[in-house]
Amino acid sequence: MKKSDQKKFSAMLTDTREQLLVNAKRAISGDIHLDPDDFPDEIDSASSESGLAFIGRLRERERVLIKKIEYAIAKIENGTYGECESCGEDIGLKRLEARPVAELCIDCKSQQEKLER
Description:
This protein is mainly α. It has helices at residues 3-29, 42-78, 93-98, 106-116. The longest helix is centred in the middle third of the chain and has 37 residues, at 42-78. It is flat and about 60 Å long.
């Protein structure tokens, strides 16, 4: 992979990580709590709890994505970014542009998904 491509992906990954961290800090500083007196009936309360559960799942997905981004940035720094972790071949630029945290080439990822079914 060319140095210019590495710089582009590093900037892209860093920007995404920073945005996710800003969102996480905003969520932590927000007032996320349930007060039973705020809801006049059980349906309102259940709806709010469901919304909070959904937000919690989104935050967990963001946390996992941040770890993948940090792993990809480390791979850029050690010169292995863009190499498939399974077969060692180059991961295509189009795939990396679509999914910068990709660890497998499209063939290995397809094979992995077939095995998971």
